[in-house]
Queue: 3 jobs
Job 1
Amino acid sequence: MVWDATGVVLFVVWLVLPLAYTVVLGRRYVRKARAAAEEAVNAAQEAAWAQADIQDVLDDLAPTHEPHEDVPVRLPTARAADTGELSAIRPPVSVGKHRLDESQLAQGVTS
């Protein structure tokens, strides 16, 4: 009879503990999710305010009149006087003697 009551108690604990654990974890998750959502809403609101401030500054900087189209704009070309010549590429100076320098392969490459 003792084992029967103990078995029933263990069975009830086995049923109740996972449910209680799930409820505790669920409440913690909901609390963290709510805090994260509030932070996201606050960040989005601050970003919207910053965007509005930037737009106000850009509107203040916008020119009030259109630029004159009859003012010529000089664009540089490849033949402009200030175009510099590129320096010629020189082969590197040999730093040391390589074992293949006297081989037929090296002689074929250099000739």
Job 2
Amino acid sequence: MEADKYYSVRMRAAKNGSYKHGGKHISGGELLSTYSNMKQAVNDLLEKGLNHSRGNPDFMQIQFELIDEPIKFMKPLQVATNEVESVEMGQALCRKLLEKAGIERKIIEKAYKNMTEYSGIRGAILIDIHSGERIDDRKDKGVRVSRMDWLNTNFKKWADYYNIPKYSRIKEALVLATKVSEHPSTVAELCWSDDPEYITGYVATKKLGYQRITKLKEYGDERGCRIFFVDCLRDLNSYIHYLEKQPVLIQREEENDTRIN
């Protein structure tokens, strides 16, 4: 039956034209939906794209496609919040966590040295932990992690249990971080938003979990960062395929309800 099939629904919004014509990235979003709930999914993404602190878009693309691979269910990463008093303290903590994840200091510093070059990229960049070089070939596009979601009812139960704010931003970030960290080639993820009004970011690894850091940039700064430190020189294409194509649904271990609503 059509209702039993799942669809990946994606939105991208830009200002001053489409991405292909140099438009400024405004917002993006990912959902999984059944066909019967498609209208609500599209409306949710439309609302997100039209109301963003980076500005009002004049270009938006919303698309959906049938998922033809089995959905993989995952438990969310454990979450810790690190309160810091300044951006400098936050970035210093990032470096310590990345080192704790097993990345050499010289590789971390090389990534930071090239941070300005990476800040305008729409997706993630992949950095090899052995050389410190960027190894994806996506230029300004980067690698978009896609086909992932977390049922709102399930997320809210999890958030209540762990006393975590039920913010959609936390949910979306944790979904992505969990999917990325699950792959054995991922060593760590470093991320903060390009939203000028949101200064919290995180370092995520399978072992350390999702480490939120409350100040990673100054308020009003539109420069974001998403770096995946990876160890997959012989398996790069398979890794990128996993990020872009493997459907994932995050779910509390206690829950058995796999319906998408």
Job 3
Amino acid sequence: MTYALSLLDKSPILADEPAGAALQRTIALAQNAERLGYKRFWVAEHHANPGLASSAPEILIAYLAARTQRIRIGSGGVLLPHYSPYKVAETFNLLATLAPDRIDLGIGKAFGGLPDATRALRRLQDPARPPRFEELLAELDGYLASRSEAGSPPALPVPPAAPERFLLGASPESARLAAARGWHFVFAGQLNGDPGVTEASLDAYAKAGGTGEVLLAVTAFVAPTAEEARAVTDPLKVFRVTLDDGQSVNLGTEEQAAEYARQAGAASYRTEIRRPHVLSGTAEDVRGELDRLRARFGVREFIVDTPPSATTRRLASVTLLAGGASALAA
């Protein structure tokens, strides 16, 4: 069985290097992904994180589209609750006009940063009455489809081919929303690798009448030997902080977890150390895991992320994964 492979990048910054070096790595990775036959190259959105340079995916998308020729470039994803749907529609219509039939709009609803950054991004919103994500997505969909309410301004320019639309989520609720709007659905398996939740979400998309493609995001690292791969991935940890109001979020370090609780004004919190779900090993090992996921869930495309700890070896990893893979033959 064959499937497509795509990449997700967060532009991780190594210790003692400028952010520009991380962005240059992202550019080189996108160009090599195109050469290797990957279908898409997506960039993420994170705020006030000194370890990541990807704070404005729409800017990076424009630059990457100009530095590549064929590969689809997109967001994984734009965090819609921070923004005006009209402005997002304008931005991606412009991108799709500059790079016809190559732009993907992936939308998410996570915070993408600690509470102080979220408050700064939403400064003009009433914190007591935050907009509902479902309403924001419906408004954005209307602008992109040129069917907004009477009296609303058009989101110009109108591109020759509309950006492809993907809703990113890790729950059946997100899957049903994607189906209701007629969007493609991406299950964030790199955030929630629980097979039961994955299956329930993909089933929910199908039962809700979803007609788009279903993609599965995974974290993977490939090395010449399984031992080399495990040396990188075995030490990985995720710190899940749960506040006294029940809100939970995954963070990269115990210090980030404590800072999140402080900025949120939590009177108390607890932290749980978890092991992230990572596909790790030789190219044969990882492709075998992807084959099994393809057979179990019926997905025809994977979005592959790489652990930040493997930043300096990422190009080698994606090259090994692509080598001889029937997934990239097309």
